[in-house]
Amino acid sequence: MSKFVGVPSVYSKLIELRKSKTAEFKGNKYLKETTKLRYYQVIGSLHIMMLERMILGDATGLGKSLELIAAYTFLKEKDPSLKFLIICPKSAIYQWEEEFEKFTRDISVRILTNEYNGCKGYDARLLQYREFSEDVLVMNYNTVLNEYDRIKDIMGPNYMVCFDECVAFKNKKTKSHFACKYLADNSKRAYGLSATIIKNGLEEVWGIYNVIVPGLFGNITNFRKNYCKQKLMKLRINGRTRYIPKTMGYKNLKQFKQVLDPYFLLRRKEDVAAELPKLISKKVVLEMFPEQKKLYGEALAGIVYEEKIKNEYYEISEKIRNGDTDKKTLKKYKELKDKYDKFLTPEGKKRGKLAALTYCQMVSNGPQLIGQPYESSKEREFIRLMKEEFLTDKVILYTRFRSGIPFLEVLCNRNKINYTQIHGNIISDRDRKNARLKFQNDPDCNLIFITQAGSAALNLQAANVMIFYDTPWSYGDLVQTIGRAQRIGSLREQIIIVHMINKKTIDVRVMNRVSSKKDLSDEILGDTAKGALDFTQHEENVIDDLFNDILDDAGKYNE
Length: 559
Hints:
By secondary structure, this protein is of the alpha/beta class. It folds into three domains: 11-217 and 257-273, Tandem AAA-ATPase domain (Rossmann fold), CATH 3.40.50; 290-365, no CATH class; 375-539, Rossmann fold. It is built from 20 helices and 17 strands. It has a seven-stranded parallel β-sheet with strand order 3-6-2-7-8-1-11, with helices on both faces. A six-stranded parallel β-sheet has the order 12-17-16-13-15-14, sandwiched between helices. The chain has a two-stranded antiparallel ribbon with strand order 4-5. Strand 16 (465-468), helix 17 (475-482) and strand 17 (495-502) form a beta-alpha-beta unit. Helix 2 (39-50) packs across helix 3, helix 6 (141-155) runs parallel beside helix 7 and helix 11 (290-321) packs across helix 20. It is globular.
């Protein structure tokens, strides 16, 4: 595409549109009748339709993906051949799929995976490229790095592209910047989504817009000249003196905003607070790493083996009751009874089921919890969330395993994330109070780790994000934990709830169980709603139900 210069002809219309509090549009044949957009989402969708290139910078939880999806349905209605390429973090792939399923009809979506029809890696992707005929293709940034040319070819000449969390290519020297720019340059329309396009400096904005709206700020040299206060730093390199410019600050910010404004739409939560629910839920669906997946499979195999032995015990017991006194039968009976007697009493069975479920949850959270030095999908995503989506937020992270917190502490220290913690091992009232006050009052502390045992009656009203590293198994525990942040006198109008879920694991089963009990948004009014914490769900029932679910998963795990 040719480089852009100037202000779009529709800019005056966009300015008027941004003032509206009643914006709405009629549906189309691709949007479900149940899909309703709030006024500010309508404004976002109209921006996307009116501009071929822009960045949507709405705060996390305001529904940026729905705005893109709605805009695409209108554009596709006018141009049925228009394809949609979505490039996003690995953790967001299945969320996009769910959003299309929830809000649209007759829109076909393909998720590009690394395993397909018995093939793995590039061979699997190549097969999917050859078969691609859907309307929408969703993939992660890593795939784009070396396959951008092939991706462009399969999308054809008429496609729009969306870069979810477009800060991924903020550095113009990276392969991701080059690859994404190639795909954007060859598209009919290009859009970026990010709530944090400015993290460390204005140069990052130039890097992002060099992909989305190339030429908007000129080249990087002119950009620095116009907007950066620079100083030459004297350096000795290989015995020679060199002077390297270093950015010390910024200037002409009013002009910078004026240039940016036509192609950047930002709404903060406080701007649209009256439109939002008190609680905004989000699922982050992840794929476990290969070693982690193998460990989980072994855990399921162990559960199946124990069930097999118990079934054999019951069968041989029945034989003996029916008069079989053969020596081999009696010997087998004694072996089984001696070895597995602890599982056969009602209490023993419950204890065995709980141990099995706990082990599966630990593997899903991270192999290090069971002493295995393998990478965790949740650990990687946790750091991404803290460094990108929730960079400036106050975050509570819940886990049922205190033993898992030290591994997260290491990651926080490595990434310079300031945190504190309250759990069952912090007994002193003074220590608990200090930790709470640090989180509540210290602007540099934006993370607190909590467990169920350590958070009873705990008020953390400064929080606006709660991450469930693993979701509580009972609905009552889930609501009580959310109540730590959503209290009378809460400092936040809305709270974002994030559930981290590994595919094909206990995480999915737990979410299905707790979601089936009641609509969460109706119940989460914290302690301000009479009866909001009255529940009939009992832990022993949860254990039995979840164990049966996991047993069912075990038989299908390698399908």
